[in-house]
Amino acid sequence: MKASNTLFAVSLSIFGAATLFTNARPAQTKPATFEGLAKPFLKKYCISCHSGASPAAGVDFTRYESEASILKGNDVWTQATRYLASKHMPPVGSPQPPESSRQELVLYIQKVLNSQCGLADPGRVTIHRLNRAEYANTVHDLLGVEFQGTDDFPNDDVGYGFDNISDVLSMSPLLMEKYLNAAEQVAEKAIVLREGDTKYFDPMDFKFPEGKFAHAEEQALGFFSNGTAYIEDKFAKGGHYIVKIRAYGDQAGPDPANMLITMDGKGLGSFNVKSRKFKDAEDFSIPVSIYAGPHKIGVAFTNDYYNAKDPDPKNRDRNLYVVGVSIEGPQEPDFAIPETQSQLLPNEPAPGQEPAAAKAFFTKFAALAYRRPATTDEIQRLCQYVPLAMKNGDSFDRGIQVGIEAALCSPSFLFRVETDPKPNDPSAKRMLNGYELASRLSYFLWSSMPDRQLFALAADGSLEKPDILVQQAMRMLRDPRAKALSDNFATQWLTLRKLAIVSPDKTTYPSFDDQMRQDMAQETKDFFASVVDSDSSVVDFLDGRYTFINERLAKLYGIDGVSGDQFRKVSLDGTPRAGILTQASVLTVTSNPTRTSPTKRGKWVLEEILGTPPPPPPPGVGVINEQEASANVTTLRQMMEEHRKNPACAACHARMDPLGFGLENFDGVGKWRDKEGKFPIDSSGELPDGRKFNGPTGLTTVLLGQKDLFVRTLGEKLLTYALGRGLTASDECVLDGIEKKAAANGYKFSALVKAIVLSDPFRKRRGDSVTE
User: How would you class 645 by CB atoms within 10 Å of its CB: exposed for 0-12, middle for 13-18, buried for 19 or more?
Assistant: First the structure.
C-alpha cells in the first residue's frame, strides 16, 4: 500500500478519538459482525452519499461486503472511522446514529483492523537524500567544517509535516550544482594546502587564443612572433602566491627579448630575457594576490624583431622560449594546518609513499562518508586523484582535496542508501544491517551521521541486538547532538518555523520585533529540550508548570524577577500558563496579523495535540468579513458564532472554535488580556458532547483527560520523523504499542524513543511493489 495514498492513515486510538467527544461506552451483548452491524449501519447512514457513479470523496461503501474487504481497504476504513468517531460523519443535516451504535461500530472496525497486527507490514523507505540540516551536520561531524552555505540550497519539500520525508526529497539539477560548489568549499576548508606547495606546468600545458605565433614542444614553448599564450588553473584557496617563469631567447637587434606576465589578462610585470640557451634559462618571479577559483596566467612576447639582411645569421631573428611555469603558495603569514586536517593527514608522506598514504586515508574516510565500509573500487576511484594531481604539478594535499570533493558529490554520501536483495518483491521482508540501523538511529536523534561508537557496534553486529540498540539510543539522547530534536523535530511538529514568516501588526503589537521572534522560538525549543534531557513525562508538554524565558519574554508574560538576555528556567505557578499551548511562539503562529484566531488555534490543537485534524473547508466557504460583521456584532466570538450559522461550516467549527476560545485571553503575540477592546473576554468553551470548560486552565484539564490520545499523536509524529516516511494503516499496530509502552513507563520521553527504535518499521524493511 502506497504511503502517499493513505491521506488519512492517522496515528490515533480510534476509541480515544471517539472519547474526545463522549464518555459513553457501548453495551455489547454478542460479538459484532459485518452482516449484523456494519452493513445495516452503512445502508442506513452512509450509502446514500457513498455509492453510485460519483460517490462522495470517491468512497463507495457498496464495494465492502465482509471483514476481508475491510482489511483490503484498511486506509479507507481508518479514515472513515476517524470521521465517524469525531462526528464529522454523517454530516450535519443528515440522520444521526445513536451514540451507542456509533461507538459500537468504531470498536468493531478497530478490532478488525487490529487483527492484522501479527502480520504487520514494516513498510519501506525510499532512498533518502540528506536534507539541508542533515547535510550541514554531517559535513561538520565528518570533517569538522562549519558549512553555512545550505541557505543557498533550494528549500527542502515537506511531506507529512516534516522536511526529512524521503518521498519528497528529490534531486534537481540546481541542487546538484549547489552540491558541487559546496563540495569545493568544504574540501578547501577541510584540507588546507600546506605552505610551500608548488604547482608545475610544462610547455604542453599552454593554450593559444589566436594565430600561430608560437609552437609548443616538451622542451620549450617557442614564440616566433608577438602574441600571448596562457595556462588555466583552479586555485583551491585564495591568498598570496609566487608565479615563476623560466625562459631564454634568440637575441637579435639592439634589445633583449621582452616577456610580459599577465593574470586574467592584466599585466603583472615585464622582464628582459637576456639568456640565449636552454641550459642558461633564467627564472623570473612575481608575487600575486588572488582569490580562490579559476584563473589564467599568461606569457606574452612583446618585441618581435626580424632582419633577414643582417650579415650575422644569429642576429637576424629575435624569439622567446618559455621552459615552464611554477606557482608557489599560498604564502600566508598566519598559515596553519586546521586541527581536523592534522587528525586526517598528520604528516605529508615521503616521496614515493603517496599512493599508500592515499589508500590508507580514503579507506577510512570513505567508510565514514558513505556510512558503511567502502568497496575496493570506490576507494580506488578516490585514490586516483592523488597521482593525477601530482602529474599536473599539484601537491599530494591537493589530490586528497579533490578526492574529498568527489566523495561529497557521491550518491553514497548525499543519500542514505538501504539496498534490498529482492527490491521488487513486496513480500521480501528483512532486518536492517548494523550500518543501516546506525544511520537510521543517528539521523533520527542527531540529524547527522553515526559516530565512531555506532560504527564499531555496526561492524561487529552488536547494534542489531535489541538491548544494544536501546542502550545506544539512550546514550545518544544524553549527547549534546540530541539538540537536533529540538531544532528539527520540535520546530516542525509545533509549526514554529512559521515564526520566520508571520508578521504581527506593529501598531497592534508594538513589542513584537525580530528579536522577540527569536526569543519566542528559543523558549519552546529550550522547553522541549528540557523534557528530553531530564527524561520527563511528555505530559509536561500539556501542563508543565515551568518554562524558559529571558527578560523580554518575562515582560510580555508579566513575570517579575527576570533580567538580561540569558534564558533561565522559571516557575509558572500562580499564572494561567502551562505547557507549550500557552507559549508565545504557538500563540503567535496561530493568530492573524491584527487579531487572534480561535479557529486557527483550535485547528492547531486538533492537528498537533490530538491528532484529529478536521477536513478541508468545503468549496465556496469564505472567511469572516470583519468590517461587515462589526456593524451587527461586537466581538470576535460573536463574529464566529455568526459564521457557524452556515451549516457547511458548523460541524468543523463546533470542534475547533471552543478549543480556540479557551485561549482567547492571550492576544495575537501571547500577552495576557482581560478585555477585547472594551468588552470582557469570554474564554469559555463547550465541546460537541456537552462538556464545558473555562479559560486556558480549563482547556488544559480537558486535554489532560485525553492524554493517551496526545501521547499517541506525539508517537505518530516521532515515528513519521524517525522513519522519514508517511505512516500507513498497517502502522496503527505499532502506534498501539508505543502508546501502551509510554503509559507503562510514566509517559517518559525515552519510553517513546525505545518503542520506536524497537519497532518493526524502524528495524526492518521490505521490497517494493510494482503497483506503488
Answer: exposed
Element (H, E) at 289: strand 282-290
Q: Phi-psi region for residue 87, left (φ > 0), alpha (ψ -120 to 50) or beta?
A: left
User: What sign results for the dihedral spanned by CA atoms 278, 282, 283, 285?
Assistant: negative
Specify the DSSP element, H or E, that contains 649. helix 647-661
Alpha carbon distance, N-terminus to C-terminus of the chain? 7
DSSP string, 393-420: T--HHHHHHHHHHHHHTSHHHHEE----
Q: 764, exposed or middle or buried, with CB in 10 Å at 0-12, 13-18, 19+?
A: middle
DSSP string covering 20-46, please?
A: TT-------SS---IIIIIHHHHHHHT
Q: Which of 559, 531, 526 is nearest to 543 (CA)?
A: 531
pTM confidence score: 0.77
**Which of these, 596, 625, 583, 585, lies nearest to 508 by C-alpha position?**
596
* C-alpha dist (Å) from residue 642 to 91, 630, 637, 647, 753: 20, 11, 9, 11, 45
Nearest Cα to 234, choosing from 327, 149, 299? 327
Judge whether 755 and 715 are in contact, CB under 8 Å.
yes
**Residue pLDDT, tens place only, 407-438:** 999 999 999 999 988 888 888 899 999 999 99
pLDDT-derived band at 456, boundaries 50, 70, 90: very high
Contacts of 43 (CB under 8 A, 6+ apart): none
**Residue 226 has which C-alpha cell?**
608577438
Cis peptide before 97 (omega within 30 of 0): no
Number of helices followed by number of strands (H, E) in the chain: 31, 21
CB of 552 within 8 A of CB of 519?
yes
Encode pLDDT of 628-675 as tens digits: 444 445 666 666 666 565 655 666 777 888 999 999 999 999 999 999
* Residue 564 DSSP SS3: coil
Cα separation of 540 and 527, whole Å?
A: 9
